[in-house]
Design a protein that fits this description.
The structure is a homodimer. By secondary structure, the first copy, chain A, is of the alpha/beta class. Chain A has three domains: 3-55, lambda repressor-like DNA-binding domains (434 Repressor (Amino-terminal Domain), Orthogonal Bundle); 69-169 and 301-328, Response regulator (Rossmann fold, 3-Layer(aba) Sandwich); 171-300 and 332-344, 3-Layer(aba) Sandwich (Rossmann fold), CATH 3.40.50.2300. In chain A, 44% of the residues lie in helices and 17% in strands. In chain A, helix 7 (84-94) packs across helix 15 (301-318). At the A-B interface, helix 5, helix 7, strand 2, helix 8 and helix 12 of A face helix 5, helix 7, strand 2, helix 8 and helix 12 of B. Chain A binds a DNA duplex through helix 3 and helix 5.
DNA sequence: CGGTGGGATTGGAACGTTCCAAGTTTGGTG
DNA sequence: CACCAAACTTGGAACGTTCCAATCCCACCG
């Protein structure tokens, strides 16, 4: 066993003696390159490269009193939604750019409490937290504020209107995009199927609804509107009711991809060919949309991830918080459900569009 | 600012002096309770509790040369599948029981390479890795073996038949469960819609297919079989072809929930009421199944997570690897698609079953 | 040619934990 | 009552890094 030589990973001292400088100089090369003369710097960097040296996370964390990690709560609503995996994927992909790593935690079966937050904080496992699905009476923001622990929320903190450490998608803009696209494609009237305002998150529901109202009214294409909760069965019934008030050549903009799927089903039920007879636009850019050939408003997941990570980073660095919550612009991904040449029905879905 | 008092988290020395013992005794209380007299132990534990002390992850990791973390690769196939979120949720929920935390990594857009593995290892950020979606020519197992880094795979390592550090669901047993359930519910003939054997993972496809063959033949209910890839459009066509050879009162067992959804669509296309006229069973226990009222074979996600985490834990502890890969038993979750009283069609889905 | 200033580099100390070897107490025995 | 072993407890050292203060070196100026 060559444990002593090959097995042990190189430390800063190994690099230092290989380059003929001291510990501290190597540290400076990596953390404050300006402090080191170019000649020395290059020599050190060459050895860093040759030995494959990387600073130990544990030693760094101990010395700096900072874990370089962000806790991410994965609870039931987050895991079981269509966008959960997309948010997680984006945060994971963007974390390295912010010099942090993620630590997911939470029991997918139990409703969130602060216990896990307290435990992870005490163990110095993370410096800050990111979470989603805030609700009224949510204990988490209060607890984190009280303990002065940085955090950022995906979605408005409507239980704490004064807080600005959140990012969300601009649903108003998203529905504008949807309506503009539908008009562009030549659909005559644009209806809307969204969420009731008394539902869990009235701001999001209101936001998307107003987007449709403003755009459709502005363009003179406003049709009927309906509401439903985020469940397939009831949504199909609501979609069915809405379609009673729409005719061939009309369209429906939806508050989510799941609702859009329900519209596909309601259309199929009455023999409407989606695309040709009826335009449908969803919201989320989820797997459901890709599978079913739904045109959808794609949330800017990477931008959201960047904003959330930057927000906690700034709080850690100097305690600054954003001047306001961030509403980020979504984009529209056209597919068959708004293609007039297409005859999409729920039971003859098209394959997913080829990836760019 | 009361930084100096309230802000600083308690350390082992604080606990020690509060309890009137030394550092080491506190450490022993937490790590080797037997070494400490009960009287002392209780006194120390009381102070631990009072001060809310938890050992610093960084200090522990530095001293023990162990991060207490497991890297989890989230790549495109993992994130974009129906089971990805379920596997992740289970691993997250079970990690604390194994005294580790997870560190997800990976770029959802790029195909996996060993670069990220090397980087995380060098930084001592993780001790081991868990990943899924192995494929032939996968560089990861070879690289990890070469560097003697523990790992465990979700899914068979069919590119390395000699390796045993994997866990997978017993698809054979799953399709037995499905067929038995369908016979139990009084369906006459049971067909099968699965994956072609030349697809990415022939072992899984073969496994599930044989389960159907054995059970259906054994019970004398074997019907026609078809194959399709894991895409909704082609799957609906394949399901349609299969239904040509089945009549009312028959059933289809499927290799995945997505394929089962395709069967729902094909049934709707020809006016068959799923449940009453046609039994359908999916595989995965995914969100898709819950939404669409599909009876499904649920993968034992928590057991899988436990096995994977235990496997890497054992490798870390004393280098032992399992004597064989683990095939874990799934369970069956009945829903409307095998309820003879129900008239489920793809466009009139039932609400998700109430959670237990 | 000595002094000065400033940038580059250095060694000591500390972050919080656990291992190790040595120390102290406890309880039992001759 | 003295002694011994076992049980329990203790302080020093080390894990790898970065902060801090001190030192070194060099060019430039008077």
């Amino acid at each position: 066993m060559r444990s002593s030589t090959a097995r042990r990973r190189a430390t800063i001292v190994d690099v230092a003696s290989a380059a003929g400088v001291s510990r501290q100089t190597v540290s400076n090369v990596l953390n404050f390159p300006d402090r080191v003369r170019p000649r020395t710097r290059d020599r050190v960097l060459a050895e860093v490269d040759r030995l494959g040296y990387r600073p130990s996370t544990a030693a760094r964390g101990l010395r700096n009193q900072r874990a370089g990690a962000v806790g991410l709560e994965l609870n039931l609503p987050t895991c079981g939604s269509d966008i959960g995996p997309l948010v997680l994927g984006a945060l994971t992909a963007r974390a390295p750019a912010h010099d942090v790593h993620l630590v997911p935690f939470g029991d997918a079966h139990v409703f969130p409490t602060v216990a896990a937050y307290r435990d992870m904080t005490r163990r110095h496992l993370v410096d800050a937290f990111v979470f989603a699905d805030t609700h009224s009476g949510d204990p988490r923001p209060d607890w984190l504020l009280e303990h002065e622990i940085p955090f950022a929320a995906f979605g408005r903190l409507y239980s704490h209107p004064e807080l600005t450490c959140w990012a969300d998608v601009d649903g108003h803009r998203g529905l504008e995009l949807a309506v503009e696209h539908l008009v562009d494609r030549g659909y005559a009237t644009v209806g809307y199927l969204g969420w009731p305002l008394h539902l869990e998150d009235p701001a999001v529901a209101e936001d998307r609804h107003r987007g449709w109202v403003d755009a459709a009214t502005g363009l003179g294409v406003a049709g009927p509107a309906g509401v439903t909760d985020q469940q397939l069965g009831p949504a199909v019934e609501a979609a069915d009711a809405l379609l009673n008030e729409l005719g061939p050549g009309d369209a429906v903009a939806c508050a989510s991809d799941l609702i859009a799927l329900a519209v596909l089903y309601a259309a199929a039920r009455r023999g409407l060919a989606v695309g040709r007879d009826l335009g449908v636009v969803g919201f989320d850019g989820s797997l459901v949309a890709r599978r079913h050939g739904l045109t959808t408003v794609v949330q800017p997941y990477e931008d959201l991830a960047d904003h959330l990570l930057r927000t906690v980073h700034d709080q850690l660095l100097d305690g600054t918080v954003p001047v306001a919550g961030a509403l980020l612009d979504p984009t529209l991904a056209p597919s068959s459900s708004t293609d007039r040449e297409s005859e999409l029905t729920s039971y003859t879905p098209v394959p997913a569009p080829t990836r760019r």
